[in-house]
Amino acid sequence: MPIEDFAALERQITEVYASLSRRLQQTARFLLDNPREVAFATVAKLAEQAGVTPSTLIRFANSFGFTGFSEMQELFRARLVNELPNYAERIRAVRVATGETPDSTQLLWEFAEANRQVLEALPGRIDPADLERALDLLEGAEIVYALGARRSFVVASYITYALHHIDKRAALIDGLGGMHGEQVKSIGARDALLVVSFSPYAEESRRAADDASERGIPLVVITDSSLSPLARVADVALVVQEAEVKSFRGLSASLCLAQTLAIALGMRQVRQRDPADPALPPPDSGRPTAER
């Protein structure tokens, strides 16, 4: 199985360290001793600092099952994001590692380009059957409850707003006063829960998802991996890949997906009220047709 987080990589490097060649041992020591620098610097700069060739770094990554050094580098970046939740600390870490202080225009171009790429890839990453099943669960619910903690709160808040505007009963679990648990308990058997959560997966979101699963409440999850703890208990998991620039992750793909869910649900409701409306597409429009 592929290595999915920094802690697992660190354990595996430690386990096989003695069997590595001298150059790979030198590489391993440098990587584990300088994780912040590794998160952002180029292969050429890291090779110079480690006293090895760029090909040695690539060979090291390949030996642990990665297709290239940049794939392994993502684990170091994810570690930094989890370790340094404060934006000022992340900015400082980027400057130390790269020696760069990009201007605002450069940052705008980098964020815009990164988000463009993930938005272009989004339709191909979402299984149409999963999208329709999620809509089925939300449509059948008397009330749709939405939960997103910390960074994910924006997405949960938006979808609650959008559902209200299509006349779908919805409630935002905001945890005001530390009452996440009490709000989750108010979800009824005829309701549904939509949880938005990304690594490192907020504990409030995990508890709410587990509770909904145990109680048999329909659960739709927007998350970043099919292996996330929330995806494993969800009735439907919609997996999105967000843009990341210098360890700062976006929300463009998640908001686009949330908007799609709300508007598609609204179109379903209008079609039910007036199925003969010529302005509405037929129920099967937009779905892939079977090959003949």
From TrEMBL:
<dbReference type="Pfam" id="PF01418">
    <property type="entry name" value="HTH_6"/>
</dbReference>
<keyword id="KW-0805">Transcription regulation</keyword>
<keyword id="KW-0238">DNA-binding</keyword>
<feature type="domain" description="HTH rpiR-type">
    <location>
        <begin position="7"/>
        <end position="83"/>
    </location>
</feature>
<dbReference type="InterPro" id="IPR046348">
    <property type="entry name" value="SIS_dom_sf"/>
</dbReference>
<protein>
    <submittedName>
        <fullName>MurR/RpiR family transcriptional regulator</fullName>
    </submittedName>
</protein>
<keyword id="KW-0804">Transcription</keyword>
<dbReference type="InterPro" id="IPR009057">
    <property type="entry name" value="Homeodomain-like_sf"/>
</dbReference>
<feature type="domain" description="SIS">
    <location>
        <begin position="134"/>
        <end position="276"/>
    </location>
</feature>
<feature type="region of interest" description="Disordered">
    <location>
        <begin position="272"/>
        <end position="292"/>
    </location>
</feature>
<dbReference type="GO" id="GO:1901135">
    <property type="term" value="P:carbohydrate derivative metabolic process"/>
</dbReference>
<dbReference type="InterPro" id="IPR035472">
    <property type="entry name" value="RpiR-like_SIS"/>
</dbReference>
<dbReference type="InterPro" id="IPR000281">
    <property type="entry name" value="HTH_RpiR"/>
</dbReference>
<dbReference type="InterPro" id="IPR036388">
    <property type="entry name" value="WH-like_DNA-bd_sf"/>
</dbReference>
<dbReference type="GO" id="GO:0003677">
    <property type="term" value="F:DNA binding"/>
</dbReference>
<dbReference type="Pfam" id="PF01380">
    <property type="entry name" value="SIS"/>
</dbReference>
<dbReference type="InterPro" id="IPR001347">
    <property type="entry name" value="SIS_dom"/>
</dbReference>
<dbReference type="GO" id="GO:0003700">
    <property type="term" value="F:DNA-binding transcription factor activity"/>
</dbReference>
<dbReference type="GO" id="GO:0097367">
    <property type="term" value="F:carbohydrate derivative binding"/>
</dbReference>
<dbReference type="InterPro" id="IPR047640">
    <property type="entry name" value="RpiR-like"/>
</dbReference>
